[in-house]
Amino acid sequence: MTLVLDARHVAAIRRHGEADYPAEACGLIGGALEGDRKVAVQLVPLVNRRTDSARNRYLIDPESFRRAQERLERDGLDVIGVYHSHPDHPPAPSAFDREHAWPWLSYVIVGVGRGHAGELKSWVLTDDRGDFGEEPITSEERKVVWQ
Predict the structure, then answer these.
(1) What angle do CA 138, 127, 103 make, to 5 degrees?
(2) Known catalytic residue at 18
(3) FRET pair for 48, CA 20 to 30 Å: which of 15, 68, 87, 124?
(4) Any idea what the CATH number is for the domain that residue 55 is in?
C-alpha cells in the first residue's frame, strides 16, 4: 500500500505538530481506498486529551473519535489513518504506539525538534501486531478539505 497525501496535508500536519509542541499533536486522516493506494482527502485535527505524559503520548478520547468518524462518513470517507507528532524525537513508532495501533491504518508521524517540524513518515502495523513497516508516501495535488 501507498499513502497519498497532498502537499497541503503534509504542511497542515507539520503546522499542527509545531503548534502543539512540546505536547504531541494528533488527528485523523479521512480518505478512500483506490486500488493499492490509500488516498487522503480530509484531515481532522483533534485535541490531545492526555493529561499526563502529553510530551510523549497522545490520547484521542472515544467521543472525539466517534464525532470525527461520523463527520468523515457523512462526506463519504473512511478513517484511513491517524497522524501525530513526536516532540524532539524521530518520526518512528514507539513501543507504546505499537501497543495501541490497529492493523491496516496509516500512522503518520512528524518529528518536531525544538518546535520545528522535520521529517514525516508513515507506518502500518503488521497483521500479527509485532512490528510496524514503513509505508511509502506519495504526493499528489488534489482537492483537500480541512475541518
Answers:
(1) 55
(2) no
(3) 124
(4) 3.40.140.10
